[in-house]
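During the reporting period the student researcher (J.K.) took over the structure-prediction task from the postdoctoral fellow and processed the backlog of single-chain submissions. One of the processed entries is reproduced below for the supervisory committee.
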Amino acid sequence: MRRLTSAIGALIAATLLLAIPGYADSISGNGRVAAPAAAPAGPAFKTGCWVGAKVDTQNTDVGFATVNDLLYGAGVGCDFIYPGTGLLLGAFGDVSIPHGTIGSDSGVDAAWFVGIRGGVLLSDRLLAYGLVGGTGQDFSIPETKTNDIGLTIGAGAELMLTPNWSTGVEWRRINIDVSGDEQVLTQDIIGVTARYRF
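J.K. obtained the following structure tokens:
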């Protein structure tokens, strides 16, 4: 009788446990409680394309004068991450307009950039990279207006904030030989970026 009573009690207890929502699903086939479900993936770089915006401060040395100004820009690009290596290769381009030099005697009237970048993932969320490409500018200096193309090099760092959004800092050095003039434009551009990844 005692054994029968114990068996009935165990059966009632098991029935009550199975009635708890989700309890039955948490038990694996070998009778052990299954491991908790994996948490959703956090922010991380991945192969794909993006659109972005940037704000730069530029310092331009034209030989006889220095021009400083803010530039506002927008760009697009695509990145490929080599599986298992943490190495990234991308191509991108952007256009910029100045804050206050339009119509003045000296300064950038407009600029565009096309180039590539290569980098290494320091973590799933943090990228360090270098870049190289070409920059074309409409640039006004006294008695001269140019739209020449120059070599651009640079470096930057980018941090994923969410699975889609990132922010970063970037430096570029641009050298442009002015057509019909002995002046060489040398620019250092430092800015911040915001990008949305698809």
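The committee noted the following: Confidence is low (pLDDT under 50) at residues 15-19.
J.K. will present the remaining backlog at the next meeting.
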